[in-house]
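Annex B. Sample input.
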Amino acid sequence: MSSDTQIWSSNGKLLISGEYLVMEGALAMALPLKVGQRLSIQKNHNNILRWQANMPGGSWFAAEFDLNSFGVLVTDNNILANKLGDILGATRGLSHTFLSDNVGFDVVTNLDFNPDFGFGTSSTIISNIAMWADVDPFKLLEKTFGGSGYDVACARADSPILYKKKDDDVEVRSVDFSPVFKDKLFFVYLEKKQNSADGIRAFKKHGKFNSGDISRISGITKELVDRADFGLFKELITEHELIMSKILGLPTVSSLYFSDCAGAVKSLGAWGGDFVLMASDLPEIELKHYLHKKGFDTVFGYDELVLGVKI
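Annex B, continued. Sample output.
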């Protein structure tokens, strides 16, 4: 790699508590992940922006952009390239000097995880581009994907965080969430990619909640961090799941797939897909056998994924 190459890196994320209601001021707990996305740039002499995005297994997409308009010149994925062009345009809206001197760049991004996982493909690229352009990542998120911003906070965190959004302000606090029962916590992929933006729109249109729901979800978040033993942890994530099931008008993931599970199961992020948190009383080998019989073979232990845990 050339000595004039610049590199930025951001962490993936999982939202443990507060999904949807974090946008309404509820206190949420989120975990930065050991996997993320890196972005490297190197000047070229072609006066264009060439972008190569990689994921595990090879190329994700490639594109070339006009430096003045960020219009797509050529690509193998129009949807992703046009969205990236929109992000670059929004970045210039925040910093008029961003890529404004007609100097071209070769950009390479490397994603550590399957983009269908919901670990933060959008938030990590927003964070990395914001570092490149030296702009506020929360403002860039607001101008592009929207959402609460907890994922951007995780992108720059080095340990689990408590996150609270109030009007235009955010509060981020690092917490030591490395419970003694973490060997009983697993993240299970449901094999159904969810679109976070679609989930947010559905929540805003159909969600029914009140200030008491926000207060209780915030209380659950505090209890999870401050005083949960394994038994209480399972009770709290079950209560959280039932509250959100009522608000969203959707069945719990446990009732859909894991009614016979020895433990407790909670949706993470957008309901209906991506990952769930399973707090299991079964030994790991038995749990994975149970999940395999149900068709779920992508399973991570807590320490495998979570950044900043004490091992």
